[in-house]
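Task: sequence in, structure out. Protein: Conidiation-specific protein 6.
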Amino acid sequence: MAEEAANKARGYKSTLSNPNTSDEAKQHAKEVLENELGEGDVKLSDEGGKDPGNVARGLKAAINNPNVSEEGKKSAQEKLDNM
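Result:
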């Protein structure tokens, strides 16, 4: 039962962050989260930071991707060097 509520909450939270969703649908999702699912303050993103290992892997992938511009590769390398 708790898993079902968590899945519903995830769906409503994704509605809030989806740019293709109408304002009316977003308002409904926010109301459901606040009232029915007891989420209180609705957060659009998780509070934890990004996993540094995943970030580094993504930057390395961008550096080696032939579809990324030289400017993008340079930016990715700078970010990787600053980690």
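Residues 52-81 form one domain.
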